[in-house]
Design goal:
365 residues, 23 strands, 6-stranded antiparallel beta sheet, 1 helix, mainly beta, S-adenosyl-L-methionine-dependent methyltransferases, Jelly Rolls
């Protein structure tokens, strides 16, 4: 009888549920950012890639659930539910080298661990703010997704793939706690655009027609170059060293309009890319403005830090030019060791962010 009870006790101890929070620093400390979960407000696909160093206690263990804690604020979050498909796998890539293409991140050992309804609890806001308090993983603070099929983690970077579908019973404004670090590059606009809609149309106060986000300018990140022009006209993106001062296209022998200038030194062009300005479905952007995009993946290498590059869009056949942009890469690599890729479930690619990721708690045994 004593041996039997000892065996039961040992078995219960071995099988007891344990928890690991990633990043571990935010297990009992509110993180500085917040994001929504796929399906809670719109149809969305999210991938989270987690570096192996965050997950060492999980090696050789079976994962049975994941949890997300609400962001700490005064507002009450109204509960509800939506449908989410969750897939776990060893990631083909590290967070620093995360790909825009969703399939390029998923390993061959993918397991669909959950497919169906996920409940978001109604969660009262904190009445103690702005005094610092420690958030708790209580039932009404936590989204819990139990696995119908468990996943054994054997090391390496882990990817969690969420495909969320909103529902009529969806939650209200429900934000998860998210880790964040303030690493980004800088941009400086060069000159002015000479587009067919400059000065800009109503509701678009910017004089610029070329854009880059400083958040993209980190080692391992992907720079998304965005330009505006006439729909279905050719869009030429030119990369190189800034010219220092505008060079009128007429000085280069081109029949361009007055005010259309080159902001890139013609003798120091590094690369060019040709695409199209396409109509944009965004209702904020007028239908007569086309949008062109191009991506440049940056290596996660220290030699890239603080380097500068110039960019400019040229529209053909009109030879209209955008403003130029001088962009400078951040002077340090991201250290979060997590990546968040976000996009539409109907698309093959999403946007990569190396500076923000949800705080995740794993249940394992």
């Amino acid at each position: 009888m004593i041996r039997y009870l000892a065996g039961v006790f040992l078995s219960t101890t071995i099988c007891a549920q344990q928890h690991l929070t990633v990043p571990s620093a935010h297990d009992a400390q509110d993180a500085p950012a917040c994001i929504g979960l796929a399906g809670s407000g719109s149809n969305l696909r999210q991938q989270v890639i987690i570096g192996a160093n965050h997950l060492l206690p999980l090696v050789g263990h079976t994962l049975s659930a994941i949890e997300f804690r609400r962001n700490l604020e005064e507002e009450t979050f109204i509960g509800g539910s939506c449908n989410i498909a969750v897939t776990l796998a060893t990631s083909i890539t590290t967070p620093q080298n995360a790909a825009h293409t969703f399939s390029a991140n998923l390993g061959s050992n993918s397991v669909l661990v959950h497919s169906g309804s996920v409940t978001f609890p109604t969660s009262p806001g904190s009445t103690m703010l702005p005094a610092p308090i420690n958030p708790a993983w209580t039932t009404n603070n936590t989204i819990r997704i139990p696995f119908s099929t468990t996943f054994t983690y054997n090391g390496g970077p882990l990817i969690i793939d969420f495909i969320g579908t909103e529902s009529a019973q969806g939650p209200g404004w429900w934000l998860m706690d998210a880790a964040s670090e303030d690493v980004e590059g800088t941009i400086r606009s060069l000159g002015t655009a000479c587009s067919d809609f400059s000065p800009p149309p109503p509701n678009m106060p910017e004089q610029d027609t070329a854009f880059v986000s400083p958040r993209d300018l980190v080692g391992g990140g992907t720079i998304n170059f965005l330009g505006q022009g006439v729909p279905y006209h050719l869009a030429v993106l030119v990369l190189g060293a800034p010219s220092g001062s505008p060079i009128p296209l007429t000085q280069l022998g081109l029949p361009a309009a007055q005010g259309c200038s080159c902001q890139i030194d013609p003798t120091m062009i590094l690369a060019s890319l040709v695409t199209l300005f396409m109509p944009c479905a965004n209702p904020i952007i007028p239908s007569y403005i086309g949008v062109a995009t191009a991506d440049l993946k940056l290596p996660a290498e220290t030699w890239l830090l603080s380097m500068s590059l110039g960019s400019q869009w040229i529209e053909l056949p009109t030879l209209k030019t955008s403003n130029g942009i001088e962009l400078t890469i951040a002077n340090q690599l991201p250290t979060l060791d997590m990546a968040l890729i976000v996009g539409s479930p109907s698309e093959t690619q999403g946007e990569v962010n190396l500076q923000v990721s949800p705080v995740i708690r794993f249940e394992y045994q």
